[in-house]
Design goal:
The protein has 137 residues and is of the alpha/beta class. It has one domain: Rossmann fold, CATH 3.40.50. Helix content is 44%, strand content 12%. A two-stranded parallel ribbon has the order 1-2. It has a two-stranded parallel ribbon with strand order 3-4. Helix 2 links the parallel strand 1 and strand 2. InterPro entries: Helicase_C-like, P-loop_NTPase, SNF2/RAD54-like_C. Keywords: Hydrolase. One of its GO terms (molecular function) is hydrolase activity.
Amino acid sequence: TEIMTIIADFFDYRGWKYCRLDGSTKAEDRQTLLSTFNDPQSPYQVFILSTRAGGLGLNLQSADTVIIYDTDWNPHADLQAQDRAHRIGQKKEVRVLRLISSQTVEELVLQRAQRKLEIDGKVIQAGKFDDVTTSTE
């Protein structure tokens, strides 16, 4: 949430209206934030959320840009974040941007996450592990 606070400070400086959802957001406030942001007359231009707090069940179909600024070790968490904007009712093309500093831990995390996704894809696509392994081994 420190990075979210820095981003929020920048938005305040620019005068941009935004909604924020993180681990400190009360469950009853989540739907209000979503409804407010998705309202066609909404003054909010940006919705900042952490992938962990944003998790499942968020519908941000009025968003057309997703910026991932903090890559997760679990690649499915980032995919889930992208899917927040790819919803029924989305009328615009969705752009996904990822902010990564070169030669940093972020770059390593992204490489590992991509590798995990490749392995996951091979296992899922195959539908099973190889036929060589048996229960007696």
